[in-house]
Amino acid sequence: MTTPLLSELTARVKARAHSLTTPTCPCTAHVLTDRPDATVVRHADTVAKAHAPHTHPAELTSRLTTASKIPDVLLPPLTPTPVDLHGRLVTFWPYGTPVDPENPDAAPWEEAATLLAHLHRTPAPPGTPPMRGPAKAAQAIKRLRATTTAASEPLRATTTPATDPLAPLIRPVLKAWSTLPAWARAETPMPDTTTLCHGDLHLGQLVRHPAPDGPWRLIDVDDIGHGVPAWDLARPAAWFACGLLPPDEWTRFLDAYRAADGPAVPPTGDPWPALDVPARALTVQTAARAVTKAVAADRPLDEVEQALVDACARMGSAPSELARTDAK
Q1: How do residues 90-146 score in pLDDT, each as one tens digit?
Q2: What are the tens digits of pLDDT across the range 158-182?
Q3: How far is it, in rounded angstroms, from Cα 94 to Cα 111?
Q4: I need a labelling partner for 313 at 20 to 30 A (CA). Which of 68, 86, 190, 217 fits?
Q5: Would you tell me the crossing angle of helices 272-297 and 133-152 to the nearest 10 degrees?
């Protein structure tokens, strides 16, 4: 459905693209993402992004400035300040070629790890806000509680806590969440205030620029800030520990990060003492999102989603169990 925001965002990105290239072009605008928390539209070589409602203007501007200062790591914005559009902050970016999801063998694990190591070795500029990873994990738990409470409401007259069909999905996730330290639940400040972190690293956060085959760059500044650098390694670490990422891909990623002198893990030896808490937090966050989506769609969990909930069940019984699965 076309909304006023989407219509005007499309017009703005078209005008911006033509100001950078030619007065007219044969292409049309493409909606890359249209979610409540982000709307992204591309026209020619320009991309416009409407950020999540209630995004803090000063924090977003700080993050844009950071991206502008390290263009060899982060894709820099076309302008260093956001504009307001229908109550949403909008930024403009050059288009880059994303990772091809249909070609997993070509996934740039080494490049992603090297970029992260360079980012983590860049001192966080004064005034940099906290990295938003723990806050996003806490938000996922909040949504899980709200969604499952609403879904359980019609069943309360005919079920008890012991027979609630949602309980086997919810309890392992919430119990695993309770085992995390307060900083990982966004209840207290993170223990690192100097290291610059991405905050939401996955392969969808990399593009080649200039397109189509320029060097890889990290994108999406919304969660960048100072914090615990191991958080940026946590998603692939969690996937590996859950058996969802092949061991050779995890090894490629970890070895490349260490080769680039990344500070999140020791240069040799067991990386899991540094990765354990962030990896557990990302597992809980991903499981919470999976259960929330499944409940909202009134469908059972798929195999991957169930594996995440099962990992949470292991974590709830032994806090370091995620690092002791058959995947290793």
Answers
A1: 999 999 999 998 998 899 999 999 999 999 999 999 999 999 999 999 999 999 999
A2: 555 544 678 888 999 999 999 999 9
A3: 20
A4: 190
A5: 30
| Joined tokens for residue 205 | 């956060």
The alpha carbon of 201 is separated from its chain's Cα centroid by a whole number of angstroms, namely 5
**Amino acid, res. 72:** D
Q: Which residues pair with 228 in a beta bridge?
A: none
- Max CA pair span of the chain: 66
Q: Which of 231, 199, 236 is nearest to 218 (CA)?
A: 199
For the chain, count helices (H), then strands (E): 9, 10
Structure tokens at 127: 């005034």
Strand-pair partners of 90 = 50, 83
CA dihedral for 187, 188, 191, 195, sign (positive or negative): positive
Question: Cα(6)–Cα(40) distance, rounded to whole angstroms?
Answer: 9
Does 12 have pLDDT greater than 60? yes
